[in-house]
Every structure is written in structure tokens, then in C-alpha cells.
Amino acid sequence: MIRTPKVGDTGELSLIVDSSHTIRFGELGVPEVLSTPTLVWYLEHSAREVLLPLFEPNEACVGVHVDIHHLAATPMGHKVVCRAKVIHVDGRVVTFQVEAHDESELVARGTHKRAIIDTRRFSQAVSRKSKP
Fold first, then answer.
1. Which among 98, 114, 115 has a CA at the least distance from the CA of 13?
2. Fewer beta carbons below 10 Å: N end or C end of the chain?
3. What's the rounded Cα separation, in Å, for the pair 73 and 37?
4. 26-59 pLDDT tens trace
């Protein structure tokens, strides 16, 4: 790593909810809303944004733990802002506080951990598993 992440470092991503981000309830007559898997993806990637500028060429990060509470529904067309803040660094594992807000309220909060990996070793491990 170029430098170790610091407690308080932040990352942010936003999206405007469209049909590719929603869950459909079909015949139930419930409107399409932001799906939990999509929300988690954006929260994970807001944490990743914190780490990307710190990597050496052979480094990346992977998610290793997610604890998210999806608190409120967000309809299509609304903006959601996802933020991640470093709250703990333990060697190569970084813990983030994550939150998402839409135009009206807090829609999610929780914690997320990412591990910094050596891409060469990671690729070798995956290749060994892929062989018959």
C-alpha cells in the first residue's frame, strides 16, 4: 500500500434508482423500489473508493463481511448517496461504517470489512480451485 488507510477516511457513491436497481413485486401491486442487493453493492463500492488510491499495482481489495440494515424503501427516480468511513484498521483488514440516504431519509446503515489482497496470490489460489 502507498499508505495505510486512516480512521476517518471516507468514500462516496451515488445513484439515481432506475429499473436495473429495483425489485419487482409483480402482481402484488407494490411499486418497484431499490433492492437490497443493489444497495449493498453500492455500499461496498463506496468503501472500495476509499482504498483504490492507496493500492500498489499488485493490490486490490475484497469484501469479507457485510452487516447492513436496510431501513426504508426508495422508489424509482430518487437519488441515493452511499457513504463509507474507515472506523478501524487491523493489518490488511479495514472496517467501515456505511450509510445510505435518499432524498427523504436514512435508508441503510451498518458495517463492512474489506481485506487488501495481493492480486497475484489471489489469482493463483482461484486458479488452483478452478482446476479439475
1. 98
2. C
3. 13
4. 777 888 999 999 999 999 999 999 999 999 999 9
Closest C-alpha among 15, 11, 2, 12 to residue 79: 15
Amino acid 131: pLDDT: 77
pTM over 0.70: yes
Q: Quote the radius of gyration of the chain (alpha carbons, Å).
A: 17
Contact at 8 Å (CB) between 44 and 51? no
Domains of the chain are 10-130 (3.10.129.10)
Beta carbons of 63 and 51 less than 8 angstroms apart:
no
d(CA 32, CA 131): 42
- Residue 9, pLDDT > 90, answer yes
pLDDT in tens, 74-100: 999 999 999 999 999 999 999 999 999
Chain mean position to CA 103: 20
Q: Supply 69's cell numbers.
A: 440494515
